[in-house]
User: Which sequence fits this backbone?
């Protein structure tokens, strides 16, 4: 199959590279000429484990191409994927669909022969209808079908999530489009991955419902963590105790500083907006949005309390800035709420992140970025872990102790065992577990 991928952001690039690896011929199109030049030279615009070698291999084997010129890519394509951004619109929180609609206009002008137009971007229910209308208006005679095919890729595990997914969701009632989609995902079909064919609007809602449900799960355990701290219980054991019930499931029950990233904050908000528009509010999700935002802000207070209630003139060593491990993505990262609040309380911050410091340097001011975790805690009055990078789990804790000015560790990701930290002489604070 020949595929055109419009948008080489996170989703477009990973999906394009993976479809090429499935054996299809994929052309990734982006208006950003610098990005395309870099991709041609093998330089990835994002950090994603395994992506550079996957791209290199498929470029070399001539199945993956990059261009700024949509013309040939769309004309020759069996399927054109729209994988452009749908950021939260300033002011009202609705998803901004201008890039999606612009892509639809462009496809309408350039498509040739039966073309399946696939929306991969996360779009509100009904967007597929709008895309269809835009194309139909521009090309009344056009032979095309518009399909919804949401992605469920986690940053840091995106290639695995694409190639070994729990399921693929395809929303279309068009028989020919269904066959094209079957062909595109054939390797998964052979692996018996469930492929759910459904109506377009249902498919669009599945994406939001999945993300919102996971956000609810995280927020639920975060509130349980707060309660655990009050009643002297251990949230990790609560997670295990409830997660072993197959109806609840073990995953996404790690308490932390609140969810961030490019999807959960944006998609939960957009879902609440859509629900309100249809006069069918999703009150649980409304609450989750509010509780999560408040939680990220409250984390600075937790750190300040651990440091004795006053951080004026104190130095804090922060480990981890990205919204989670294995990514350089800083979008809605808890560190963006926590660090400015610590600075406002008079503290200075030295920080280290294995991948996100470049990105973070544009978003945070007056932070000293260091070359290692050890440098970040040098002469600091506390060590604070915000992101759970694996390399922070295996630190030389004696060296950390020697570098710190105190023995205070605040671990917002529960990556250490409390009794071990106590035995090493740390005053250790974590999430939803007794402090030692
Ligand atoms: C998410 C979805 O998982 C993915 O299916 C969707 O397509 C895009 O959004 P991503 O944002 O990359 O993926 O990260 P994910 O691993 O889901 O984590 C989201 C946030 O929740 C992070 O801030 C993470 O730290 C937090 N989280 C996750 C927790 O706090 N606890 C958990 O148990 C799991």
Assistant:
């Amino acid at each position: 199959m020949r595929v055109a991928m419009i948008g080489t952001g996170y989703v477009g690039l990973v999906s394009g590279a993976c479809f090429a690896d499935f054996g299809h011929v994929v052309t990734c199109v982006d208006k950003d000429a610098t990005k395309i030049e870099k991709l041609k030279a093998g330089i990835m615009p994002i950090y994603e484990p395994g992506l550079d070698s996957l791209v290199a291999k498929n470029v070399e084997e001539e199945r993956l191409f990059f261009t700024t010129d949509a013309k040939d890519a769309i004309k020759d394509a069996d399927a054109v994927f729209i994988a452009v951004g749908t950021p939260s619109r300033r002011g009202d929180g609705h998803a901004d669909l201008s890039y999606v609609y612009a892509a639809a206009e462009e496809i309408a002008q350039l498509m040739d022969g039966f073309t399946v137009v696939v929306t991969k971007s996360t779009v509100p229910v009904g967007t597929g209808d709008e895309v269809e209308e835009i194309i139909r208006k521009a090309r009344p005679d056009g032979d095309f079908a518009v399909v919804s095919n949401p992605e469920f890729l986690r940053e840091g595990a995106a290639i695995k999530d694409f190639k070994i997914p729990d399921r693929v969701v395809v929303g279309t009632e068009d028989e020919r489009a269904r066959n094209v989609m079957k062909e595109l995902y054939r390797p998964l079909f052979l692996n018996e991955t469930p492929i759910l064919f459904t109506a377009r609007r249902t498919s669009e809602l599945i994406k939001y419902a999945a993300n919102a449900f996971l956000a609810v799960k995280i927020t639920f355990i975060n509130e349980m963590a707060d309660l655990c701290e009050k009643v002297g219980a251990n949230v990790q054991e609560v997670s295990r105790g409830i997660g072993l019930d197959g109806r609840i499931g073990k995953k996404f029950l790690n308490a932390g500083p609140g969810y961030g990233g490019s999807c959960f904050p944006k998609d939960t908000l957009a879902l609440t907006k859509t629900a309100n528009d249809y006069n069918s509010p999703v009150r649980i999700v409304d609450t989750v949005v509010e509780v999560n935002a408040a939680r990220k802000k409250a984390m600075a207070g937790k750190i300040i309390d651990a440091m004795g209630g006053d951080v004026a003139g104190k130095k804090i060593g922060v480990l981890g800035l990205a919204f989670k491990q294995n990514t350089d993505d800083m979008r809605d990262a808890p560190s963006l709420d926590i660090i400015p609040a610590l600075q406002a309380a008079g503290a200075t911050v030295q920080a280290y992140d294995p991948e996100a410091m470049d990105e973070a340097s544009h978003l945070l001011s007056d932070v000293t970025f260091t070359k290692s975790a050890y440098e970040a805690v040098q002469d600091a009055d506390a060590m604070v872990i915000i992101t759970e990078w694996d390399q922070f789990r295996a630190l030389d804790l004696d060296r950390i102790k020697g570098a710190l000015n105190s023995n205070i560790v605040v671990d917002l990701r529960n990556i250490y065992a409390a009794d071990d930290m106590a035995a090493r002489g740390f005053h250790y604070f974590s999430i939803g577990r007794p402090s030692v």
